User: Fold this.
Amino acid sequence: MHSVLVIGYGNSLRGDDGIGIAAAEQLRDTIQNSRVRIITCQQLTPELANEMSKVDRVIMIDAAKEETPGQVTVTKIETSNDSATFTHELQPSTLLACSQELYGKNPATYLVSVTGYSFDFSDELSDGVTLIMPQVLTRIRELIDQ
Amino acid sequence: MRTIEIKPVTRIEGHARITIELDEEGSVHDAHFHITQFRGFEKFCEGRPFYEMPSLMARICGICTISHMLASAKACEALMAVRVPETAIKLRRVANLAQMIQSHALSFFYLAAPDLLLGMDADPAQRNIYGLMKTNPQFVRDGVRLRQFGQEIIELLAGKRLHPTWIVPGGVNSPLTVETRDKILASIPEALGIIQRTLNWYKTVLDNYREEIRTFATFPSLFMGLVTPTGELEHYHGRLRVVDPTGTIVEDQIDPKLYPSYIEEEVLPYSYLKAPYYKSRGYPEGIYRVGPLARLNIIDRTGTPRAEEEWVEYRALRRQANLSNFHNHYARLIEILYSIERIEQHLNDPEITSSHVRAYASPNNNEGIGVTEAPRGTLIHHYKINEDGLVNWANLIVATGHNNLAMNRGVLQVAKHFVTGNHLQEGILNRVEAVIRTFDPCLSCSTHAIGQMPLDIRLMDAQGRTLDRLKRD
Assistant:
């Protein structure tokens, strides 16, 4: 079986922005697969490129503000050469480019984005996002097993 | 009068604005470093139980989480009058040093190196860590690996790398296993190799930056930080030492809890960041600096063999205290080396895997002060509680605050040197910003202060409802 890295990221103090971290943590509690490594973090940073270079597949989970609240979207990420002035604003495509540039590895990378209902100050997910969490986890598991 | 604004300042932690004021002749008249964000931690911790403080204060910063937790836990332990087990102290030291490594690596490799390697006048679109990947990939891989090394140690000790709840008043909440210790020890040779390689390279290119060394916040000031009783480098306990620009000790072995007798804070009209100064010299003559440059200026020796060799060489650059803030970069590399060596020493201590890592007590004092050295400098947490153990007053002095006056003076100095008249180029502006970056300011940490500017603080519950609001126009 291929090796997989799951990266759940976002701000867990801003309501549904914490969906990535919450989903990754729920996955960690339920999945039993030594080939799957799970990382949670507030934002994407260059050192994650090293982690990415060690696996066959990467699944990132993040919140989105676009589209309809509750919508779950899976996007295949391609490398991007866009440079970023701020390390705080690293995008999945740039991170994948870092993996390619620094380590010569280009793992299949997917972004699971979930459009949130509320991004106000709160350490809890909205009812709407909580309701679709099983669907989000199913999509991630499908990507792991694909 | 014409005003030039640089907004926002890039590659620092947080957001800021610099204003350079020109006079009628187009010469630099004055310069200010504005902190325009406000967070209010001192205010909204009021009414919370004291034992919540380490976790709450950890949220001040995503980089120096461990430092805030440590200073906060130490302040809580002063409230409890509890004796923390020796093993817990050693484990906390390891975590603090690991954070030193990851933070210094971030500052040097990600934030400062683009200026150093690609040149101050390089295209801003390329002058960043991603530009460096194309020109110096091994250098970036080294930076990534060092930062990872520090983060992994924190994750292995504390369960997660960001905002862990492992440090608690009275100690830590889980001991170190033999397996984890051995795993960390196994990665030390690689980390030592990287930092030694980087130091060797840096020393060969140092001469290229003579102008920056001469002009990047190079002025006489006091320097402050913690030292051991024998004058060695200290990041966790220790006592405060102050030296003057000649390297002469002005104050030594100050009990950190007596800091209010030595430090006063001034509120600046143009910034949310307060400006501490050394009390006996008055404002603004009591300007002092903290952080890597200051720490290497105040000590008599480092206390580890390889860092000691490097420090001796570094000190040979100037017989007295090093006055150029540009040397913060060099100092960070030496502190990374020191931190790796110290971590190895602590992990080889047979007591490090002891299971006795926490003590318990109720509050026995109504006032507590905790002081540590964060990557950017001395960090002070000071709390007062009521009879129910609820915080009713808090004061935080963070490294960026200590350095506030020095940052302003540094901006003015570099602006006077590089900015003349109407012809401004990116390279010139970047040098003004770069001088700020040598301080590696963390604005998220430092803007907890209540200044004299209009502000609005809202206390909200988990549902996002406003519970209380403080507003001043």
Remarks:
- Confidence is low (pLDDT under 50) at residues 84-88 of chain A.
- Residues 4-145 of chain A form a domain with the Rossmann fold fold (CATH 3.40.50.1450).
- Chain A touches chain B at residues 13, 15, 40-42, 46-47, 49-50, 83-87, 94, 97-98, 101-103, 118, 120-124 (CB under 8 Å).
- The radius of gyration of chain A is 14 Å.
